[in-house]
Amino acid sequence: METRTLCIGVSIDLNLHLCRDNVEKEFTTGAADFYVPLFPPTPRPDLSSGMQTLRDLFAARYPAAANLRETDIVDTSIIDEVERSGFIERLYAGAPR
Questions:
Q1: Same domain, 44 and 32
Q2: Which residue pairs, CB below 8 angstroms and at least 24 apart, start in 33-42?
Q3: 47: how many CB neighbours lie within 10 A of its CB?
């Protein structure tokens, strides 16, 4: 009787383990399929819509802030370098967009 119980216990444990791994795989695949299209492939900051708000906010205390440009606040050189290297293209090669 003990041997049978042990075999059933191992079988149930193995099946639960396999089931859990499959569920996790389905979940992560489903999550990726949902979220990947929501983000741009190249993560570039876009301050254009908020630049005037930033200028207005800081100009009262710092008058030079009235002339701020997006390039004065954000340095995209590392993003440019990663993009030029082909990393982003390779990362998304074959991925549905």
A1: no
A2: 33/96, 36/95, 36/96, 36/97, 37/96, 37/97, 41/88, 41/91, 41/92, 41/97, 42/79, 42/83, 42/88
A3: 14
**Residues 44 and 73 grouped into a single domain:** yes
Side chain identity, residue 44: R
Number of domains in the chain: 2
The pTM of this model reads 0.51
Are the C-beta atoms of 25 and 18 separated by less than 8 Å? Answer: no
Instruction: Provide the residue range defining the domain that includes 78.
Output: 40-97
User: Are 46 and 34 within one domain?
Assistant: no
Report how far residue 30's alpha carbon sits from residue 19's, in angstroms, rounded to the nearest whole number. 16
Q: What is the pLDDT of residues 46-87, one digit of tens each?
A: 887 888 888 899 999 999 999 988 888 888 899 999 999 999
Residue found under tokens 């074959």: 94
Do 13 and 26 reside in the same domain of the chain?
yes
